[in-house]
Specification:
Blueprint: H1 2-19, H2 21-25, H3 37-53, H4 61-75, H5 78-96, H6 105-121, H7 131-146, H8 153-174, H9 176-181, H10 186-203, H11 217-220, E1 243-251, H12 258-268, E2 269-277, E3 280-287, H13 290-298, E4 301-310, H14 311-330, E5 334-342, H15 345-353, E6 358-361, H16 370-380, E7 382-388, H17 395-404, E8 409-412, H18 418-426, H19 434-446, E9 449-455, E10 460-461, E11 467-468, E12 473-477, E13 480-485, H20 488-502, E14 507-512, H21 518-531, E15 536-541, E16 549-553
């Protein structure tokens, strides 16, 4: 029966995506350090596997579909994860309506149509050349195959795998930014990997479809090196080092000295680990200077998927959250609550000072799941809750949480940055209707102009076509890389000056990342005030990783 087939094949396909998550991540177009499509899809699928495997052995298709729908939604991370969850939901629902057992090609076509419908409903502005294009192409191809009465299910599945990869290969022709960077869409490729593995498991084969794309074979089809892992350390009880710093590292040369790197990490803190094999490693250290660790390792290769946790605050927050939960159990619900996402400790403190009830940890390098946001909404303990995602890649998970919540009314104000959240919170009024607050906050967000400064993690090109090299400092305005240089200070100055020339503002709100110490941050603010004396500078420590400077002009 179809339920048993899915229970057998889904874990195999999910593992295939997990095995190739790094490969999928590398296909992300922009050189900012948020290449986590493979990770997000893998985490999403992993949650589905957990729910499906928890079902009884004789569970019907209805129960399997429910597990897929709930698991994919709760585990969805980032845009790719949320869209994948909706595709899975639609297809599972479509298979519940299958006329017979075993399923027919007609049943497959109906499932793909429903999967396409549900996925497109989840996206307000579908973009051609993405995972949505692949689903659409597969739906059309399945309909064509259903008209061939001689076509078996096995033959149809093989044809659909070929179509999936052919569709992926066409994505650069549909989305210019892909062609400019010589890659296929990462989400589309990840979905093709999943579908191919599912079909192989279903048919009992281990074949791989041979296809050509604009992507270099060493990137798109290269097998991922043996995965690395770090041991879980649960015995930290107040180390003199505050920041648990871990990241993936790709060595630039074959003679990378692992011992020298470990010796350096030992001088920076304790609990240092460097595991893996050249060129890919996982690095972990407890330190008070994560910026120096990252800077040093950048001198020997590339870093990505960086996670910096403040162990001191985590222990405090964990205790506080438990206490808050206990208190909330008997506490009356407030009328209006606010949930926001922040990447740094300083950002979180500012948001809380502006009235945010629950701050969810997350950002560019690690998107919180739908379940994470839904849990925060519940902890806000309010009749109405406003969610500020503060990142474009978190918005869909926030909206999914809002739709899934049945204990209170939830609305999402589509903030893309923390400075936008600040502006939105300034106009929040707790005694007006939710819709009025959302309208006012959305209008306030529209008047904020943002800038971000970070370092490139791969070669690319700026909005004007000029080249970008790995390690260059980039100034990002409205999602486009408009300034490139070698100095954080100079790029920040140039970006602020450029934005002031386009439209003069009165106030610059600027957040320092964990890379900038107080002295360097003060020097940068002084330089901005000297260069633009009419611009009022409002400095704060944001503590965000990877982005030394984030600012807004109003």
């Amino acid at each position: 029966m179809i339920a048993n087939v899915i229970r057998h094949c889904f874990p195999v396909a999910a593992q295939a995506v997990a095995d190739r998550a790094d490969e999928i991540n590398k296909l992300n177009v922009f050189p900012v350090p948020d290449g986590d499509t493979g990770t997000n899809m893998s985490l999403t699928l992993k949650t589905v596997v957990k729910e499906v495997e928890a079902l009884p052995a004789n569970a019907p298709m209805e129960a399997v579909a429910k597990a897929i729908t709930h698991g994919s939604l709760m585990g969805a991370r980032g845009n790719s994860g949320v869209i994948t969850s909706q595709i899975l939901r639609g297809m599972a629902e479509g298979l519940v309506d299958a006329k017979g057992d075993p399923v027919t090609v007609t049943d497959l076509a109906a499932a793909w149509r429903h999967g396409r419908k549900v996925a497109f409903q989840a996206v307000r502005k579908p973009v051609e050349g993405t995972i949505l294009t692949v689903v659409s192409d597969l739906s059309e191809r399945a309909d064509e195959l259903a008209h061939d009465r001689s076509m078996s299910v096995e033959e149809a599945l093989k044809e659909l795998v070929s179509e999936a990869y052919e569709s992926v290969a066409r994505t650069p022709d549909l989305l210019p930014v892909l062609k400019e960077n010589g890659v296929v869409d990462s989400g589309a490729f990840g979905f093709a990997v999943f579908f191919e593995a599912f079909v192989n498991a279903c048919l009992g084969t281990d074949s791989s479809v041979d296809f050509r794309t604009t992507v270099d074979s060493s990137d798109a089809k290269r097998s991922v090196a043996a995965s690395v892992h770090i041991e879980l350390n649960d015995d930290w009880e107040g180390s003199e080092y505050r920041y648990c710093t871990e990241f993936l590292f790709h060595a630039d040369s074959s003679d990378f000295d692992q011992k020298a790197a470990l010796d350096f990490l030992a001088t920076m803190g304790d609990c240092e680990l460097l595991v893996g094999s050249n060129p890919d490693y996982k690095i972990h250290v407890h330190t008070n200077e994560p910026d120096r660790v990252l800077h040093h390792m950048l001198g020997h290769g590339q870093i990505f998927e960086v996670f910096i946790h403040n162990m001191d605050l985590e222990a405090h927050d964990r205790t506080a959250a438990i206490a808050a939960d206990r208190e909330a159990t008997g506490a009356p619900r407030k009328k209006l609550g606010v949930v926001a996402v922040a990447a740094g400790d300083g950002e979180a403190e500012i948001l809380e000072s502006l009235g945010v009830d629950v701050v969810v940890s997350g950002g560019q390098t690690m998107n919180p799941s739908t379940a994470d946001i839904l849990d925060a909404v519940e902890r806000a303990n309010a009749e109405h809750v406003i969610v500020l995602p503060d990142n474009g890649n978190i918005r869909m998970a926030a909206e999914a949480a809002a739709n899934a919540c049945d204990t209170c009314e939830v609305a999402v104000v589509p903030t893309k940055t923390v400075p936008q959240a600040f502006a939105a919170l300034f106009v929040l009024e707790t005694d007006v209707p939710l819709a009025d607050n959302v309208a006012a906050m959305t209008e306030a967000v529209a008047n904020v102009r943002d800038g971000e400064v970070t370092r490139a993690v791969r070669d690319s090109q700026a909005a004007d076509g000029s080249p970008i090299r790995s390690g260059d400092v980039m100034g990002i305005q409205d999602g486009a890389i408009t300034v490139v240089g070698s100095s954080v200070d100079q790029v920040t100055l140039d970006l602020v000056r450029r934005m002031q020339t386009e439209e003069e503002g009165d106030t610059l709100t600027i957040l320092a990342g964990d890379e900038l110490d107080d002295e360097a941050f003060q020097a940068l603010c002084d330089a901005i005030e000297e260069a633009m004396p009419d611009l009022e500078v409002d400095p704060h420590r944001g503590g965000q990783p990877l982005y030394p400077v984030i600012f807004s002009i109003e």
